[in-house]
Amino acid sequence: MIKEKMPIMPSPRTGKEPKIHESVFIAPNAMVIGDVELEDGVNIWFGAILRGDWGTIKVGKNTSIQENVTIHLEMGRGVTIGADCIIGHHAMVHGPCEIGDGCIVGIGSNLLHNSKLGDGSVLAAGAVLLNKEIPPRSLAVGIPAETKKEGIYTGKLQGAKTSGEYVKNGAAFKKYFEENQNCF
């Protein structure tokens, strides 16, 4: 998709524009606004909103932001999402918060203020993480989210097991929309 047609815009508050690697796929009805940095292989799916109008959002390489995810933050704060993560459908990520490399944020879950998800950890579907740090390679479940199991994931980080497939799918969608610019 040519840049002029991508669903991106500067922040009306600060004038900062998204920094987007050329390989990134952004679905036509997703929005990326303001101080947002998307590294190589990131894929932003339909209906997702990344609104960096009040602070900085950084997304590491090969991370998948799936349908209807919302990422936003408090004024002057930040959201950092590592490489090879999967942010599941309908999740809410509201910073300041940090998601380590290779994490999975489950469908419909909420990762909120002053939270940190350690490398290779999983926040279960529907969980709500607030003001808490989850250790690396752990499973967090519930409302409020609690660490259920620590150090259980060995080998390749959880998100990295499938993030490459989303990168390939994003590349296929990107190519399709580039070749069919009037289809959406």
Please, could you describe this protein's structure?
- By secondary structure, the protein is mostly beta strands.
- The protein has one domain (12-179): Hexapeptide repeat proteins (UDP N-Acetylglucosamine Acyltransferase, domain 1, 3 Solenoid).
- It has one helix and 20 strands.
- Strands 1, 2, 4, 6, 8, 9, 11, 12, 14, 15, 17 and 18 form a twelve-stranded parallel beta sheet that branches. Strands 3-5-7-10-13-16-19-20 form an eight-stranded mixed beta sheet.
- Strand 19 and strand 20 form a beta hairpin.
- It is globular.
- The model has no long low-confidence stretch (mean pLDDT 92).
Q: What is the average per-residue confidence, as pLDDT, rounded to a whole number?
A: 92
Give me the count of strands: 20
Helix/sheet category: mainly beta
Largest sheet: 12 strands, parallel
Number of helices: 1
Number of domains: 1
Could you tell me the strand content as a percent range?
A: 35-45%
Overall 3D shape: globular
- CATH hierarchy: architecture: 3 Solenoid
Secondary-structure element series: EEEEEEEEEEEEEEEEEEEEH
- Rg calculated over all Cα atoms: 16 Å
Name of the CATH homologous superfamily:
Hexapeptide repeat proteins
Tell me the name of the CATH class.
Mainly Beta
Spans of 5+ residues with little confidence (pLDDT < 50)?
Answer: none
Tell me the span between the first and last alpha carbons.
Answer: 11 Å
CATH topology: UDP N-Acetylglucosamine Acyltransferase, domain 1
Can you give the helix content as a percent range? 10-25%
